[in-house]
Amino acid sequence: MNNEPQSMSVSNILHQLTSPWLNFILAPLGYCFIGLLLAVRQQQFHLTHFSVLFLFFVIIYLQENSFRKYANHPDMKRWIFIAITDILLLSILVYFYQNVALRIVLLLLLMAILNHGHLFELKTNEMFYIYHSFLNSISKYYLGNFITLFILSGAVSKEIGIQLFQYILFGLYVSHVKSRLVEIREGKRHYGPVVAICTVLFSLSWLIGTIIYFVWYLGSFSILGTILFSLSLLIPILYQIYYRKEFSVNRQFTYLHWYLIVMSFLYGFFFII
User: Fold this and answer.
1) Residue 187 has pLDDT above 70, yes or no
2) What is the domain partition of the chain in residue ranges?
3) What burial class does residue 32 get, using C-beta atoms within 10 Å of its C-beta: 0-12 exposed, 13-18 middle, 19+ buried?
4) pTM of the full predicted structure?
């Protein structure tokens, strides 16, 4: 009798935490959360710069989300949305050109350009999908955090710049799962050797990333950080054996974005600077 209310409350909490509306906050935050935490730990924070940068990431996510739909439904009217969002992105680039540095503007411009690759239908059985997945992950999950840390703190050490590359593997996993979920939702699943290779490598990239952290950077984390990092393995495992079957596609997106937030927090908060 006592277990039923508890079970219901856990179910309700999960239902609230996986609301599709949270994607519009969680996904952009996943692009910059490590950089934000590292900057705050260095007692460096510029509210206006971060607010404008976060708006940039929100627009990038809105474009990605909409471009995926346009790619699968070419008949949809899209040019007005593309024009409005691109103008907003250019306005933000002007702001950072005037207040930060040209090199940051060029990196943000590169992110915006690569994001337009979602305008094309991405078939997981084509080589273009592999190139796009890697570039998209590098753009959002490496450059996003690198730019955030640079804008807020004024510099990024060589050591942190190199270590941020590991985070790409977690982003690659999430991006691939999202692409497969979109194919399933649209009834356009693809098969072939490219799909098989991508599915194996990309689906295990989170595990590869975790192993790399343990092998190379174990001494760079506190004991508590190491324990929590180990427990984070449960998140993708639970997704594969349970939540993938229980949640709708949009709620699975939210679950995956929460995973990136958790990994960002563990790295950004517990990593010994």
Assistant:
1) no
2) 20-270
3) buried
4) 0.87
